[in-house]
Amino acid sequence: MNLTVIDHPLARHYITVLRNQETRPEEFRAAARSLTYTLILEATARLPLREHNVQTPLEVTRGWSIGDVVAIAVLRAGLGMLDAALDLMPNVKVGFAGVQRDEETAMPQEYYSKFPNLEKASVLVLEPMLATGGSLSWAVGKAKESGAKDITALCVVTAPEGVKHMYNEHPDVRIVAATHDRELNDKAYILPGLGDMGDRLFGTLG
Ligand code: URA
């Protein structure tokens, strides 16, 4: 399994805030952003670097810059992770993958996608809830069609079904998650999970 579950006190703290049904959308958004910092630190630990000299006020020394990074937000819940990527890597380029489930067939259906050039980039796909894996697998497939070769998926919560689906369809893609949960219920929500991530981020719970 190409899954890394990060074990960090801050990640445990923020996943607990996200799980709590009393957490209001503004706190939920802040916690999602903070948690995503921890995921990005793990996901980028082996990012390629360009080496070059840098002039300090005193002398020249060795320095490094990160190469091309593209963050792809899977709409709409992936938007809750995007600000963290932009905070840590201000020159990141951003793609969007809009997919919804066809209610008849339960298959992923595209409604919007736009990617920058992915050929030489380290690609981070932001998909907070890896439930059945259909949306992430679809987004990764689209990214590969656009030339992506180095892909890491960042997830807040994963379920065994989604990880298995990804391993079957995209064994080359690394998944970095804050927690690996127990199972899906009959509506494909993750248990114990945190509910509907998009609704909780954007206050559309009814
Ligand atoms: N999407 C969500 O937002 N939550 C789940 O539990 C599963 C999919």
Total domain units? 1
Largest sheet: 8 strands, mixed
Name of the CATH class: Alpha Beta
Question: How many β-strand runs?
Answer: 12
CATH topology: Rossmann fold
Report the uncertain regions.
Answer: none
Total helical segments: 6
Give the C-alpha Rg. 17 Å
Question: Please, could you describe this protein's structure?
Answer:
By secondary structure, this protein is of the alpha/beta class. The protein has one domain (3-46, 67-202): Rossmann fold, CATH 3.40.50. Helix content is 33%, strand content 33%. The protein is built from 6 helices and 12 strands. It has helices at 9-19, 25-43, 79-88, 134-145, 160-169, 197-202, and strands at 3-5, 49-55, 60-66, 69-75, 93-101, 108-114, 122-126, 129-130, 150-158, 174-180, 183-184, 190-191. The strands form 3 sheets. Strands 1, 4, 5, 6, 7, 8, 9 and 10 form an 8-stranded mixed β-sheet that branches. Strands 2-3 form a two-stranded antiparallel sheet. It is globular and about 60 Å long. The termini are far apart. The relative contact order is 0.18. Uracil (URA) binds next to helix 6.
Summarize the structure.
By secondary structure, this protein is α/β, with parallel strands linked by helices.
Topology diagram in text:
Layout: E1 3-5, H1 9-19, H2 25-43, E2 49-55, E3 60-66, E4 69-75, H3 79-88, E5 93-101, E6 108-114, E7 122-126, E8 129-130, H4 134-145, E9 150-158, H5 160-169, E10 174-180, E11 183-184, E12 190-191, H6 197-202
Parallel strand pairs: 1-10, 4-5, 4-7, 7-9, 8-9, 9-10
Antiparallel strand pairs: 2-3, 5-6, 11-12
Helix pairs in contact: 1-2, 2-3
Residues 77, 129, 131, 189-190, 193, 196-198 line the site of uracil.
